[in-house]
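Justification of computing resources. Each target in the renewal requires a structure prediction run like the one illustrated here; the chain below, 88 residues long, is used simply to show the kind of job we budget for.
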Amino acid sequence: MTVPAAIDPVRARRLHWHCRRGMRELDQLFERRLAQLLAAADLAGIDRFERLLECEDDQLWRWCMGRERPDSADLAAEIDAIRAGDQA
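Resulting structure tokens:
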């Protein structure tokens, strides 16, 4: 995992670890999104993504599958980005 100089490498490793949810599908979605954010050195996106990772797995799964939407506009935008990346 290559980490741009603007990103704290300890934080990047911690986020990478938190992407491991124990559900292969979520793991892949989140690891792909983290790689995109790190490549773009998108600090605001990384902050949103970190907040997203604080949510419960069952809720994340429903959001990522499009069954429900987060109430927070920031989290909804992050879910949209994850889903768009999955369809690319």
